[in-house]
Amino acid sequence: MNATSQRLGRAFAVSTPLQGRPAPTAAGGPLKPEYDAVIIGAGHNGLIAAAYLQRLGVNTAVLERRHLIGGAAVTEELIPGFKFSRASYLLSLLRPQIYKDLELKKHGLKVYFRNSYSFTPMLEEGIQGKPPRSLLLGTDMAETQKQIAQFSPKDAQVFPKYEMFMNRLASAIDPLLDSSPVDTTAFQHGSLYQRLKALFTLKPLLQAGLILGAQLPQYYQVITGPITKVLDEWFESEPLKATLATDAVIGAMISPCTPGSGYVLLHHVMGDLEGKKGAWGYVEGGMGALSHAIAKAAEAHGANIFTEKPVDKVQVNSNGRIQGVVLKDGTEVRSKLVLSNASPQITFLKLAPQEHLPEEFIKRISRLDTQSPVTKINVAVDKLPNFLAIPNATNGRPLPHHQCSIHLNCEGTQVLHQAFEDATKGIPSHRPMIELCIPSSLDPTLAPPGCHVISLFTQYTPYTMTGGKVWDEQEKNAYADRVFECIEAYAPGFKKSVIGRDILTPPDLERVFGLPGGNIFHGAMSLDQLYFARPLPPYSNYRSPIQGLYLCGSGSHPGGGVMGAAGRNVAQVAFEDFKSM
Q1: What span, in angstroms and rounded, lies between the C-alpha atoms of 296 and 300?
Q2: At 380, phi and psi to the nearest 5?
Q3: SS3 for 418?
Q4: List of domains in the chain
Q5: Contact predicate 324/333, CB 8 Å
Q6: Can you give the pTM of this predicted structure?
């Protein structure tokens, strides 16, 4: 066992949770043989879909295979006294209407906002005894400009204009998130009523065009081009460009030089948290507390939520229509609607009967790009990291930079590109991109006094390594040690502070959370797998070739992140179909 895991007389190298947040008790008692709707998986989208359907009077049951709800939005006490947001770890993208409709504050949701949101320390020798430089970005624009001016006065001057430019694009795309994509099939083959109805789905697209106006060509370049090209047109300082570029590649097996990476950046900056545009925050109690607030809202309307109820297959009658699901233990649950919060691959290649799906559809689902670069490492430490760029306070209390997303190995976009290049050769990055977050810097409920939980979102690590290597414990620990060495260079003493760690490589993320290929979005957020094409045309409206079977997870429009839009949108679509049954 790694020596750094042996601190304070405790030694943990966690691969399975010791304890998770308990699931809520099903409001309707034991599992019944029939419901109006069954939802496969209690991820946040599935729970949101359940809440909306139940509000509309559709008797709904949610069936979760794990012992706790939340999907990737979970809190797990991996080490006694330390509560980790084991997969997703920040909140921003949750749709404002969901926040309001489900009264999540009333059901216990509390968010700690980060005033400073990004910290990028440099690896460099200090000048005349001064510490290395760093870049601290926050909500105070004047202070942010002072920080940027260390590297480029020109960039400091232009940064507010860049923010306005990107915010305008985010505002244009925002309406597209809250409705199904345009139903092109209805225009071609639908009845007159269906064609007229489809016309209304054009409204968000028209709104987007009106917002962007004459600048539409410039915005088109942002969405389709590599983010390096976009940022090079605005800025000259590499630390600023690299810091901004992290949002364009995070969670994606792409380089900042990859065409289309601009949209991924936009996807991560379009949040609106409690009315604060672009804000990111930590959920008190970890991300599992968000899932529990949504579950409480669903249960308050009468939804039933069950854990340890893995679904084995969906049942389809001779007319090609859904009639329910069968659990692993053979239990049958009948329903008119089945909504799958699982990935498209699990839903259509494992759960759905293949004889009821078109052969071409099966082929295209199996070819979806699900590459993932991500290894998530959850760490318990007995003190805050002490960065050379901004030394800790003498009293040991967190400083503003501790609450940020801390970007390491981000001195320039070329560093990020080289990390990507390593992975394309089938090897983990030598200098991985690291996003380090310390939620306990704001939330004292997560760790014992004086101690902290740290989330390390790292890339790039290929699912399949070259030379026949596999992600066994030796390889996982070797990679984690490499990450820790990188952190040590910025914050000496970090390795000695480690109490324990939990390492989730792409195969682990797939096994534990059902993420295909370990992809946190259920599939690449590339332009060929978005909007009309998510997961496939013409099935971007959440329906499937099997009548009554719907997708409601991140593999459907508008994609990944703790957004909830897919869950809300599919509930509206499924309810319309339910009324006509």
Answers
A1: 6
A2: -105, 130
A3: helix
A4: 34-75+87-111+286-368+519-580 (3.50.50.60), 115-279+371-513 (no CATH)
A5: yes
A6: 0.92
Label each residue of 156-190 as H, E or C: HHHHHHHHHHHHHHHHHHHHHHHCCCCCHHHHHHC
DSSP assigned state of 131: P
What Rg value do the Cα atoms of the chain yield, rounded? 23
* Residue 44, amino acid: H
Contact 74, 44 (CB under 8 A): no
Q: Is the peptide bond before 537 cis (omega within 30 degrees of 0)?
A: no
Peptide bond into 558 cis (omega under 30): yes
> What is the spatial distance between Cα 96 and Cα 274, in angstroms, rounded to a whole number?
7
Whole-number Å distance between alpha carbons of 410 and 389? 14
Q: Tell me: the pLDDT tens digits for 390-407?
A: 999 999 899 999 999 999
Any idea how long the chain is? 581
How does pLDDT run across 404-451, given as a tens digit for each residue?
A: 999 999 999 999 999 999 999 999 999 999 999 999 999 999 999 999
**Average pLDDT over every residue of 58-87:** 97
Cis peptide bond prior to 391, omega within 30° of 0 = no
Checking 346-354 for CB contacts under 8 A at 24+ apart, the result is 346/514, 346/516, 347/40, 347/544, 347/549, 347/551, 347/555, 348/544, 351/40, 351/311, 351/312, 351/313, 351/314, 351/325, 352/313, 352/314, 352/316, 352/544, 352/546, 352/549, 353/313, 353/314, 353/316
**Positive or negative torsion for Cα 154, 157, 162, 163:** positive
Kindly state the tokens that stand for 466. Answer: 């070259």
Torsional sign, CA 293, 508, 12, 451: negative
| Residue 284 scores a pLDDT above 90 | yes
Distance CA 355, CA 314 (A): 12
Produce one character per residue of 255-275: b if its CB has 16 or more CB atoms within 10 Å, e if not. bbbbebbbbbbbbbbbbbbee
Comparing CA positions, the residue from 225, 218, 235 lying closest to residue 169 is 218
Rounded Cα distance between 21 and 5, Å, is 24
User: If we measure between CA atoms, which residue out of 383, 377, 514 comes closest to residue 432?
Assistant: 377
Residue 91 tokens read as 């909140």
β pairing state of 116-121 and 405-408: parallel
- The letter for the amino acid at 19 is Q
Q: What is the pLDDT of residues 297-319, one digit of tens each?
A: 999 999 999 999 999 999 999 99
Distance CA 568, CA 286 (A): 23
Element (H, E) at 325: strand 322-327
